[in-house]
Amino acid sequence: MGDTLVGRDDVVAAVRALLDGAAAGSGGALVLHGPAGIGKTAVLDRAAQADGFLVLRGAAAQEEYVLSFALVTQMVGPVAEESPFVVGRELLDRITTLAEQQPVLIIADDLHWADTASASVLAFLGRRLGADRVALLGAYRDDESAPAAGGGLPELALGPLADDAADLIVRRHAPDLPPVTRRRVLAEAEGNPLALAEFAVAARSPEALAHGSLALTERLEKAFADRAAGLPENVRVALTVAALGEGAVDEVVAATGLVIGGPFGSDDLEPAVAGRLIDPPARLGAVRFRHPLMRSAMRHGVSEPVRRACHRALAEVNGDDPYRRAWHRAAAADRPDEDLAAELEAAGKLVYAAANPAAAYRMYRRAAELTPEHAARQRRLAAALFAAFDMGDHREVVRLCGVIDPAPLDLPTRLAIALHEEVLVDRRWSGSLLLTHFADEAGLLPPGTDADQVVLALRVLTMRLYWGIGEGDPLRGAMLEILDRLPDGPASSARILSECMLAPVDRAASVLEQLRRTPVSSALQPVELWELGLAAQVCGDMATAGRLLTRAVAGMRQGSSVVDFVNALSSLCLQLLLEGDVRQAAVLADEITALVPEAGMPLYDPTARAMGAAAAGLRGDATTAEQLAAQAEQVLVPFGAVPVLALVRMCRAFTALGQNRPDEAYEELVTVFTPGASSYHHAFRLLLVQPLAEAAILAGRRDDLAALIDEMTPVAVRTGSPILRTGLDYARAVLADDDTSFRHALADPQLTVLGRAHLELAFGRSMRLRRRAVESRSYLRSAQHTYEALGLAPWADNARTHLRAAGERVETPTSDAADLLTPQELHIAALAARGLTNREIAQRLYVSHRTIGAHLYHIYPKLGVTSRNELAGALGPIPGEFAA
């Protein structure tokens, strides 16, 4: 057993349990963390020796320039230059396929230095291994880690060794140390295995422990630097080159020769091998330091002239690689240089486009340092800020917000910086910083501004405003003025959506007209379909919204940004709720929740839970609905996202209506319609007139319902919103309670299937109460069938109750097969019933095909079937997105 496994029985047991589970088909992930030298790598080394596993191993390096997917490439070879989301999906399939032949162990060391793309892929994999013969074991260093270095995976901390274990290590390495010196070593090493070994060996020297005032990591680094100081000068240069570059032997040999001005060969590195600083390079084909702190010692332990000379040599050796050449040339510079800065900025743009924001951030930041002119420096600092945000380093974003002078920047950049500042500095959903920055921008748009660039910046911000501030806020006016001053041209989907989100009431008629004029061709990208579909939804055109959003999600499943995909899923989920397709809505809410970690959009978790709660309430599952609603509320209120609470009010109202508590439902929904109330939303209320009218009439609030009709009728005329019009038609019909009003409402061609069922139930109930039982039956029967097909059990029960009262014999229905399954099981069963293979379903749902097989194993007995060929008959017709 190595030194660093002494006293680690609990850690070894945890890793053994992970490996045993994976070997048995129950995979998982575990990330070790602790300070430098605490023994993380030793635990990984022991795990790599496990019998029967195919080991895919890699270690991130403390390189100033890191390629996208560098760590993942070490493990599995080259991967496609796609988004981490797409690469993660492909690797999940590849690795779980390998695991069918032999259990797989993925080992990722030094995650604190991992490139952003690799870290995202490994986190994606680690969350999806539950039914596979795959284990993921990682490690990161506490004192160097970025936030969330563990990727949200299960973690295990390694702390200092107990006294007896620490003493054993010291005695092994220096058995003859005097007791006083041994006690000094034990005290200075603080239970750190690497420090215990290094200090014990070094303690024979009188100066060995002279750096006691330094932190432990610095003392270890100093000890390694002292060891390197005794090497020949050409070897020290070679180690510095290896520490600053990628470490390939050929690169180190060639660059070292340039620095020293003479020949240098790999054999010349032998003193560093003998000094236990590096492993034998001939065996690895690279100069690999035996511990990251040794590499750090060589990077920081040389003079500036030597370091610059090494960078110049590396730039020359890597002349065929424009990215690394630009980086090393810039690192060698000792004064501002615009040509170098421009070259590095151009390289940064290329690596940023290749999904490597970490490398781009370092390039932009160094480019800014080399920039002599103020405006150009601010532009490059802004680029560094956006890259830092993308790689999740919010502390650096906050720092740069305080450093950047926005005055010389263009409008889109100023807007985006203001958004980041509001989110991460002010830390509120909508606050004074955002208002101040944006209001000042109105009227400042320079002639000839690139309209597309501005619109793309506005789209992100206006979606935030839709759920942020009221319709009368001056910020909306400022943003609309910016949008209106853009040069005329074809209305893009992003521009239509921005106008819709900024003025969902005042501009609704204009947006609906633009939507009617916009050709929806096969040439439109999925993200454009989503933008148009969301605009249609906000303006109340349910037919157009449903069609476009379904196409958008189907297209994005073939490959897209995970952020765009989660946006589209959320829009479609709300659409399905408004249409009453609660089964599919529950499935999508579940899917959104699973993708939130990949998207890095934490606010989507409570909104998905709120929509899941609404689906549960419409199905009649009050317990699940309230549980999810409470979870959503606990996040939204502290975050300051109070307007988003309209979703929570909606789901609680649906639940109360389903439980025959109309007074409670009315009180929940009316807050969405009441200015000044915490959940008031001037636009979202247009989508909820029908359920509010239903609650009001059932609660006997006829005067309140009449007031609602009076208030909303002018709004319906001004907006032309179809869902508002049909909602008001329902309200007028139930208030008037006469055939003419009901028949008028039922004649609207833009009624949704759910809207028609609600009218049929209300009309049939009205007829029965007016002693026209026979006439009422066809309406009640139609409503019952629609509710049953949609899965709205409480409304179906209500329709059956009125049918029985009208004299029709109605059998109590058996449980719908689909309602026996969880949302994820229903999704899998529906796709399998369509004929998709396990692997095709896995690709679509971003899990492994073994996970799909495990789910089907549990689904079959729930439905009383024995094979996938029987699923279609058990489930019945599955409409909508499942069939896309």
Quick recap:
By secondary structure, this protein is mainly alpha-helical.
Written overview of the protein:
Helix 10 crosses helix 14 (about 290-300) and helix 37 (about 720-735) packs antiparallel against helix 38 (about 740-745). Mean pLDDT is about 85; it is low at about 425-435. The chain has a 5-stranded parallel β-sheet, with helices on both faces. The relative contact order is 0.05. It contains 45 helices and 5 strands.
Task: Tell me about the largest β-sheet.
Answer: 5 strands, parallel
Number of strands: 5
Distance between the termini: 56 Å
Give the structural class: mainly alpha
- Which strand order does the major sheet show? 2-3-4-1-5
Percent range for β-strand residues: under 5%
Q: Which helices and strands appear, and what pairs or packs with what?
A:
Layout: H1 9-23, E1 28-34, H2 40-48, E2 54-59, H3 70-76, H4 84-98, E3 104-109, H5 116-126, E4 134-141, E5 155-157, H6 163-173, H7 179-189, H8 193-202, H9 216-229, H10 233-244, H11 249-260, H12 270-274, H13 281-284, H14 292-300, H15 304-317, H16 322-332, H17 338-353, H18 357-369, H19 374-390, H20 394-403, H21 411-426, H22 432-439, H23 451-466, H24 474-484, H25 493-502, H26 508-517, H27 526-538, H28 542-556, H29 562-579, H30 582-599, H31 604-619, H32 622-639, H33 645-658, H34 662-673, H35 689-698, H36 702-719, H37 722-736, H38 739-746, H39 753-769, H40 773-790, H41 793-805, H42 823-833, H43 838-845, H44 849-863, H45 871-875
Parallel strand pairs: 1-4, 1-5, 2-3, 3-4
Helix pairs in contact: 4-5, 6-8, 7-8, 9-14, 10-11, 10-14, 10-15, 11-15, 15-16, 16-17, 17-18, 18-19, 19-20, 20-21, 21-22, 21-23, 23-25, 24-25, 25-26, 25-27, 26-27, 27-28, 27-29, 28-29, 29-30, 29-31, 30-31, 30-42, 31-32, 31-33, 32-33, 33-34, 34-35, 35-36, 35-37, 36-37, 37-38, 37-39, 38-39, 39-40, ...
